[in-house]
Amino acid sequence: MKHIVSGIQPTGSLNIGTYLGSIKNFVRLQEAYKDHHFLIFIADLHAITIPRDRAELRKSIKEVAALYLACGLKTDNLSLFIQSEIEAHSQMSYLLQCFTYMGELERMTQFKEKAQRQEKGVTSSLFTYPALMAGDILLYDAEYVPVGDDQKQHLELTRDLAIRVNNRYGDFFTVPKPLIPKVGARIMSLTEPTKKMSKSDDNIKSRILLLDDDNIIRKRIMSAVTDTDGQIRFDPNNKPGISNLLSILSAITNESIETLVNTYKDTDYKTFKEVVAEAVVKELKPIKEKYHEVIKSGEVDTILDQGKAHAERIARKKIAKFNHKIGLGRKQK
Ligand code: TYM
Question: Buried b vs exposed e over 132-168: b needs ≥16 C-beta within 10 Å?
Answer without folding.
Answer: bbbbbbbbbbbbbbbbbebbebbbebbbbbbeebeee
